[in-house]
Amino acid sequence: MVIKLKSVLACVFTALLMGVLSLSVHYTGAYAVFFNGTPRALPIYSVDREEKVVSLSFDCAWGVEHTDKILQALDAGNVKATWFMVEFWTEKYPDYVAKIDKKGHEIGTHSSTHSYMSKQNAEEIRLELKTSSEAITAVTGKKVELFRPPYGDYDDELIKTASEEGYYSIQWDVDSLDWKDLSATDIALRVINGAKNGSIILMHNNGLHTAEAVPIIIETLKNKGFSFVPIGELILRENYSVAPDGRQMRAQ
C-alpha cells in the first residue's frame, strides 16, 4: 500500500513538474525553439555562407587613440570593415567619421546614447535611430542601413522597430573581448579560433591592443582561405529567415 502511494505521489509530482516546465519553456521562448521556431525577433549574428568569408566590425563609443593604427592595418591587408558609431562619438570626432568613410569602410549606427534599448519604447527607439543616423549622414552623405544594439541588448520591440525603420540589426558570433584589454595574441586567437564561414567579428576602435591584433587576424585568416567583406555585403537583403541561433539563412 505504501509502495502504491509512493508511486501515485511520484506520478503526480512528475505531472506537476512537467506542467511547470512546459509553462516555463513556453514563456521563455524555448518552447518555440523546441518545435523548430522562435517567438523572438532576432538580429543577425552570422550568415549562412558556403564561401570562407567573414566580416570585421568595430564599435565606436569612446576615444580615437588607436583608430589610426587600426585603419593602417586594414589598409595594409586591403580589408574593408564595418564601423558602428554612437551619435555622441560621431559628433565629437567628425574628422574620423569622414576618414573612415573615405577609406571605403561601411558605417552603421550604434544608437544615439548607448543605452540599454530594450528598456525603451518604440518612439524612443525611433528617435535614437533617427538622430544617430542623421549625424553620420551629415558627414558622409550616405544612408545608414545597419544598426548594432548597445551592449548586444535587445528585445522584440527593438528589433521589429529597427526593421520597420529600414535597418538590419546586427550582432556577432565571434567576440574578440578586446575591450577587456587582453593581449594582442589573446585577442587574435579568440577571433581566429572562432571564425567560421559567414562570421561577424566584434571588435572596438579603441581597445588597448586591438590595433596590434588586427594584422595577425587578417594574415592568419587569409592563410586559412578566408576573405573579408563589410557586413552589408555579407548579409542577405531579402528572402531570408533568422534561425534560433541567430544565423541568417536564405528562405527555402
Strand count, sense and barrel status of the largest sheet are:
6 strands, parallel
Rg calculated over all Cα atoms = 22 Å
The CATH topology name of the largest domain reads TIM Barrel
First-to-last CA distance: 58 Å
> What is the molecular shape?
globular
Number of distinct helices:
10
Order of helices and strands: HHEEHEHHEHEHEEHEHEHEE
The CATH superfamily of the largest domain is identified as Glycoside hydrolase/deacetylase
Amount of helix? 40-55%
Q: What would CATH call the architecture of the largest domain? A: Alpha-Beta Barrel
Mean pLDDT: 88
Which structural class do you get from the secondary structure elements? alpha/beta
Enumerate the spans where pLDDT stays under 50 for 5 or more consecutive residues: 1-38
Strand content: 15-25%
Number of domains: 2
Q: How many beta-strand runs?
A: 11
Can you identify the CATH class of the largest domain? Answer: Alpha Beta
Secondary-structure blueprint:
Blueprint: H1 2-28, H2 30-34, E1 46-47, E2 53-60, H3 67-77, E3 82-85, H4 87-92, H5 94-102, E4 106-109, H6 122-140, E5 146-147, H7 156-164, E6 168-169, E7 174-175, H8 184-194, E8 200-204, H9 210-223, E9 227-228, H10 231-234, E10 240-242, E11 247-250
Parallel strand pairs: 1-11, 2-3, 2-8, 2-9, 3-4, 5-6, 7-8
Antiparallel strand pairs: 10-11
